[in-house]
What we know:
Helix content: over 70%
Oligomer: single chain
Largest sheet: 2 strands, antiparallel
Strand content: under 5%
Radius of gyration: 22 Å
Distance between the termini: 32 Å
Mean pLDDT: 87
Number of strands: 2
Low-confidence stretches: none
Amino acid sequence: xxxxxxxxxxxxxxxxxxxxxxxxxxxxxxxxxxxxxxxxxxxxxxxxxxxxxxxxxxxxxxxxxxxxxxxxxxxxxxxxxxxxxxxxxxxxxxxxxxxxxxxxxxxxxxxxxxxxxxxxxxxxxxxxxxxxxxxxxxxxxxxxxxxxxxxxxxxxxxxxxxxxxxxxxxxxxxxxxxxxxxxxxxxxxxxxxxxxxxxxxxxxxxxxxxxxxxxxxxxxxxxxxxxxxxxxxxxxxxxxxxxxxxxxxxxxxxxxxxxxxxxxxxxxxxxxxxxxxxxxxxxxxxxxxxxxxxxxxxxxxxxxxxxxxxxxxxxxxxxxxxxxxxxxxxxxxxxxxxxxxxxxxxxxxxxxxxxxxxxxxxxxxxxxxxxxxxxxxxxxxxxxxxxxxxxxxxxxxxxxxxxxxxxxxxxxxxxxxxxxxxxxxxxxxxxxxxxxxxxxxxxxxxxxxxxxxxxxxx
Length: 458
């Protein structure tokens, strides 16, 4: 599948404002498109339901259920996602395209069994009232959880082979089905809403699977080479789970505390004080992610290929040092651009935060927590950009330690913020993201300075 870097470079080389604008719009679409489509669709369903007055009492439990499903499926599938994408990358490097499809089906089988058993155990061991959607709702809960885990695996693989546009199109298709079906099926209750959500993601699952199977045909049906310890990097499993868990741990801290949350159905709770501003604050990632996407897919990717091609082809040490300098400059300039653009975004939102909240009909008293969350999300963008470069450089242990630092500090500081009182809500996430991103930047800088040595000696 063709990478998008070539198209971005074509726009940038036109050296016009229109060309640059098209490049960044494209980067924003493919970089943040799936997330925007998903959160926009859920907001649309909520607004549509409340406007119609039908099922307005079930839409809040439905949206909270979707949020729990997203958080738990991302964390569980994270155990396999990075490990499997790296396995596929290694097979592509070996020109073994025929190994992709059978191992994908094997990975999906493992994911389905693990998520199915986990979901069934959680649903069966927790307490549900008679009003909590009934048996149909609980069956759909497990089925949707399994489907989401497989969707994240497939979307990770498509992103790994740089088929970003395909991911956006599939997400648009799947959420189009969800937006169409959920309000209609929702007339029968909570199970109806979840059925619409399930069907939409099932469409996404089979569409992505079809894309991959058509692109990478094979004469084998199923394989489990990705579980061979000689062919995989087991540490990536823990890294993937920690990275995804770290993003959600502060939300769970507020959900699980009876002081800061309310019960909705079964074990599902929501935090009126914390949920609203944090999810709106995530809209601020779009400019920074678009800038990083452009830089990572143009300057950095180009210099990365040149440097490691020179390593494999046996270039002179002087040439390698020159190329290493260009690679380091591309990485640092990308980080600098993100820092400037995301920093400017944060400043603007701090000034107009109340107006932004008003657009979503959110009371102004949320503005204080919204401002804290916007700053925290800005640091998270910086951290994700740094982690991406470390993954390019195969710094797996460093990425693992940084993911553990982010998860552990977010958990500890979020709990501490609750003890300190409402004035400190959100600061746990902010301090954790700031601390981890600063440590990551220091680590990356040292890694880039020692790249020649570590390429050959470690």
